[in-house]
Design a protein that fits this description.
This protein is mostly helical and 373 residues long. The protein contains 14 helices and 4 strands. Strand 2 and strand 3 form a beta hairpin.
């Protein structure tokens, strides 16, 4: 497959209408490793806002259950990206996210800042470390994708363009970045976790810590009171990522999508997970926590990468996602066919550990159904 197959495909789509499909191609075909890394750094960056970092520290989730919290965030966003905001799976994931956020007094400004980080930081990362730069259509699609996600989250005053997202983020950081002991604890816990990821764990933890900090800009480092790296440290870190980009540039286009749930970084659910049970459950949460889902939804065999029931229409027969075509429907065409909101009927299975990715983000094909050889 030609290396530019997917960029040609994206050029045929409308970022104002097909933003979910464009973002899905970027995340699972063109830049799966880069999107995962940059979104992780985007979330990490938000800790430098004391009101955000302090709250995350107080919950204990990021300091005491760091791996699980990392996995839950990744899997919720992955579900939305794979199935779409209008799908039952996507709506379950958004509902789970809103339930968690609704348990705390989080300002609209802080929510908007996090949303902006998820738009801006991947664009900046890919422009600097990706195997190619994003086109303006891809930037627009990314902004539109997160605009719609923000709308589902009840966030107000969302910017309209990627440039406006960037302007808000930069101004918010200038005004709000600062030191907080709790935020520092969350930062340290996250850096320790990153050092345990496949390939990273092959190097001494001190080396991975310095590598990560060499990728951070000065305002972010200053907010945590970290030492600014030497020029040679930044040069080595940047050079390593650009060498990876050069290698990826000469690889063929990815035929099969690579979802975040298939990455070996995700380690909390070797037997699978239910989207409706990811994350935290504050006291009084109305979501049922029974071991089996309502109706006793069965779990496929452990070698399946995914076995999700997707609804073809209201009241229609559920169909395995593995047997559906990846040709995406037009934006909004699913809305009229959606069943009413309900507890999750989605049971995902994590892919088996795939080992080091050799800095390319490429993995062997994974069986999508228990019957596939």
């Amino acid at each position: 497959m030609d290396r530019h197959h997917w960029s040609h495909r994206i050029s045929q789509l409308d970022p104002a209408r097909d933003y979910e499909q464009i973002y899905r191609i970027l995340a699972t075909h063109e830049f799966p490793w880069d999107l995962n890394q940059s979104l992780s750094f985007a979330l990490y960056r938000t800790y430098a806002v004391p009101s955000i970092g302090r709250l995350l520290s107080e919950t204990g989730e990021f300091t005491q259950r760091t791996q699980k919290r990392y996995d839950d965030t990744t899997l919720i966003l992955d579900t939305i990206g794979e199935h779409g905001l209008a799908s039952p799976a996507g709506r379950t994931a958004v509902r789970r996210m809103n339930q968690m956020h609704g348990a705390y007094d989080i300002s609209n400004a802080d929510k908007l800042y996090v949303l902006c980080a998820f738009v801006v930081m991947p664009i900046r990362w890919i422009d600097k470390y990706g195997w190619r730069r994003l086109t303006q259509a891809e930037r627009t699609a990314s902004a539109n994708y997160y605009r719609e996600l923000g709308r589902h989250m009840g966030i107000k005053d969302i910017p309209s363009t990627d440039q406006q997202f960037a302007a808000f983020l930069d101004q918010y950081e200038r005004e709000h970045f600062g030191f907080d002991e709790g935020a520092l604890a969350v930062s340290e816990a996250t850096l320790r976790l990153m050092a345990t990821f496949p390939l990273n764990r092959l190097a001494p933890k001190a080396v991975m810590d310095r590598f990560a900090k060499a990728l951070m800009d000065d305002p972010l480092l200053d907010a945590f009171h970290y030492r600014r790296p030497a020029r040679w440290e930044r040069g080595l870190a940047t050079g390593a990522l650009r060498l990876r980009a050069l290698t990826v540039r000469f690889l063929p286009a990815r035929k099969e999508p690579l979802y975040a749930r298939q990455l070996p970084n995700i380690r909390s659910y070797p037997q699978g997970y239910d989207v409706a049970r990811l994350g935290t459950f504050p006291p009084g949460c109305p979501v049922p926590h029974a071991d089996l889902l309502p109706g006793g939804v069965p779990v496929a065999s452990a070698r399946a990468g995914l076995d999700v029931q997707r609804f073809r229409g209201r009241g229609g027969r559920a169909q395995s996602a593995a047997s559906t075509t990846r040709e995406e429907p037009a934006q909004g065409s699913l809305e009229a066919a959606l069943p009413p909101p309900c507890p999750s009927v989605f049971r995902h299975l994590s892919a088996p550990s795939l080992g080091p990715e050799l800095l390319t983000g490429r993995y062997p094909n994974i069986a999508r159904r228990s019957g596939e050889g």
